[in-house]
Design a protein that fits this description.
The protein is 80% helix and 0% strand. It has helices at 11-27, 31-47, 51-67, 71-88, 91-107, 111-125, 132-147, 151-168, 171-187, 191-196. Helix 3 (51-67) packs parallel to helix 5.
Length: 197
């Protein structure tokens, strides 16, 4: 068991330490604890110039709030992350924040705003279409299309995700893609194909 009180650590290392404890708490579904550690890590990290880590921490905090079904708090943290990312001008970081913001807006039922964010995310991440971030953006876009009852668009998006998942050899994305295809096919009155998916 690690002792979280290590005052002799350099601030950069202390930020990393609390980041790690936040990950551990998140893996245990202890989302309130993960938020506490990540907020502390972000505060310390900002003091020593860890901009990229802070942006990732803000989205992680937002994701924890989403897991707690507190989507309004999640949106606040996602907005902080996106604002900071836009200031850097780093495309992959901006794209990742856009997709997280889009997913949070979807959960809040703000579907058009979510569509705008996810469309911008996919466009921004297009140069790194082989990345995990692009695959996540596809998954979020597919779920949004399902929420909007756009069954054909959802099916096409989940087929795209399936190709990316196979290229990445990523079972979790493969499962997401097959689940999404099955859902869309069922709504398209293709129950046999849905069962195959």
């Amino acid at each position: 068991e690690l002792d979280p009180a290590l005052p002799d650590l350099h601030p950069a290392n202390l930020a990393g330490f609390h980041d790690f404890l936040g990950v551990v708490a998140g893996q245990r579904s202890e989302f309130a604890a993960s938020v506490e550690h990540w907020v502390l890590s972000a505060q310390i990290g900002l003091q020593v110039g860890q901009v990229r880590r802070t942006i990732v921490l803000y989205t992680n905090i937002g994701d924890s709030f989403n897991s707690l079904n507190d989507h309004h708090s999640a949106l606040d943290w996602m907005q902080r992350a996106l604002d900071m990312a836009r200031d850097t001008g780093w495309p992959v970081t901006v794209g990742s924040c856009l997709m997280q913001m889009g997913e949070t807006l979807r959960r809040l039922g703000r579907l058009q705003a979510a569509q705008d964010m996810l469309s911008e995310a996919l466009s921004t991440l297009a140069p790194v279409a082989a990345s995990r971030s692009y695959a996540i953006a596809l998954a979020y876009s597919g779920d949004l299309a399902l929420d909007r009852h756009e069954w054909s668009a959802a099916y096409r998006t989940f087929c795209q995700l399936h190709k990316r998942a196979d290229a990445l050899n990523h079972p979790e994305f493969q499962i997401m893609a097959m689940r999404g295809q099955a859902h869309a096919l069922l709504q398209l009155q293709c129950p046999e194909s849905a069962l195959v998916a």
